[in-house]
Amino acid sequence: MHKKVNFKHSDASLKKIFQSMYAYDLAVLYFDFDEAEKKRFLSLVSLSQLSEVFIELEVEEQLDLLNQLEENQKKALLRKIESDDLKEFISDLEEEQREAIYKLLSQVKAKTIQLLMTYDEDVAASIMTTDFIQIQIDSTIKDATNMITTTSKENDYIDGIYVVDDEKRLVGVIDLKELIIAR
What we know:
Elements: H1 11-19, H2 23-32, H3 35-44, H4 47-56, H5 59-67, H6 71-80, H7 83-91, H8 95-104, H9 107-117, E1 133-136, H10 141-151, E2 160-164, E3 170-175, H11 176-182
Parallel strand pairs: 1-2
Antiparallel strand pairs: 2-3
Helix pairs in contact: 2-4, 4-6, 7-9
């Protein structure tokens, strides 16, 4: 059951309310917000939370949300969203809309999404992520830990740490738990 948000609360109160809610619930509520409520909501949620809400929305609502933002805010939001989630969003757009979104992305991210879109939907590569953590085979535990703490700000989920040699060939995979224990 989803509760209605009372926008008569102060900004500080609303911010706390929004922070305590799951992205899915906020996405459901966003659909029912009027224009003024949407603007206020967008001014109160963090970029991180907004990116989570964005991927829970339907395409039309995603476009509506983007249209509420200034260009620099759009770029920041799209930068925060994982490539595989953006691919899912972009694949439902008309060509003209896709091009407009690509222009907001870095060249690398745009190329990554274009590559992901070349795969058939029923192929694993179409839903894979291109975000992962790799370390050199001669990295110390401290170096590896530092790499993970700096990189994980951009990666929501760390499954394994890929160990590569000097020629970037995969040597093995370390479980995050193993690395923590080794410290």
